[in-house]
Amino acid sequence: MVSRWRPLPDTLDPAGQLLAQELRVLKERTGLSLDGLARKTPYSKSAWHRYLNGEKLPPRAAVEALGRVAGADQIRLLGLYDAAHRARTAPAPAGNAPAGPEIGQPAPPTGPARRKLRGAAALIALTAVVATMGAAASIASIPAHAVRAEWTAPDSCHGHRCEGRYPRRFGCHRDARAESTITDDTYTVRLLFSPACGTVWSEVRPRSGGAQKVSIWVGRDARLTSHPGGRTGRAVSPMLATEDLHSAVACARVADRVACTGALELRTPARPGPDHDLPDPTFLLHAAR
Questions:
Q1: What is the Cα gyration radius of the chain?
Q2: Total domain count, the chain
Q3: Could you say which of 84, 139, 161, 259 has the lowest number of CB atoms within 10 Å?
Q4: Within this chain, do residues 168 and 76 fall inside the same structural domain, yes or no?
């Protein structure tokens, strides 16, 4: 069944419209509802609603995730995302350029002077090409192991550029601090925050066995979840960007037992619902008051 989409906002730039339209096409290709898409990716139903209706530019990781589910051409898809991101983040123009030279500014050169400038520009361009060729030759002489070391160095990110990504891959674990922790006989769940990356995530350390779900929430709508599938040992959620630590809640499900912890203490223990899913932290925060 084809979804009936609402019109995209008039304020959305052309590149953003192209991206949103492509995401809609891919969503239809999957045959999934928004709920189904949320289960297949680390992004919530409400987040996909905003992305697909052009209300918010999705993070790059969300575009990649939908592309994987839909079997899309990732190079073309990410090209659309990069164009939309550049259009959204480009600085606003200072104003229309004047038709002629401003008062006190020299007029553009003409005749012989203009030809001399063109020759100088060509010489500068040729010099840049030669310098580039020299740099390429220098790179070619670098030992292969050094090149491999450079390419395997961790990436870096900050804020919304980190969303949907995992902290260790981007070095966010280096300055991570535990904002809140809950421990019982089965597991320890921690809400972690990286000041350098401006992100939060959930970490669970089971005493035995492994976690089925690890989620991080910021407010009611922003949620990312990983599904470790019961693998033993430590497990983490993807990261969410936030400046308000008091709205962040970390949750995990281990052996059909759910625990949540946040900067606001949750004094009421969490209990799984009929489907043993992770609870809505909004309910938990009300219950803790």
A1: 25
A2: 2
A3: 139
A4: no
Pairwise CA distance, residues 31 & 25, whole Å: 10
The domain in which residue 257 lies consists of: 161-288
Q: Mean pLDDT of successive 10-residue segments in the chain (289 residues)?
A: 78 92 93 90 87 91 90 92 88 53 43 46 40 37 35 66 88 93 89 94 89 87 82 89 89 87 55 45 39
Residue 106 CB neighbours (<10 A): 6
DSSP-derived letter for residue 42 is: S
Can you spell out the DSSP letters for 10-42? TTS-HHHHHHHHHHHHHHHHHT--HHHHHHHSS
Whether 55 and 173 share a structural domain = no
Together in a domain, 172 and 278: yes
* Residues 7, 53: Cα–Cα separation, whole Å: 8
Bin 31: left if φ > 0, else alpha if -120 < ψ < 50, else beta.
left
Domain boundary residue, one of 89, 106, 126: 89
Tell me: do 168 and 85 sit in the same domain: no
Kindly report the backbone phi and psi dihedral angles of residue 192, in degrees, each rounded to the nearest multiple of 5, phi listed first.
-105, 145
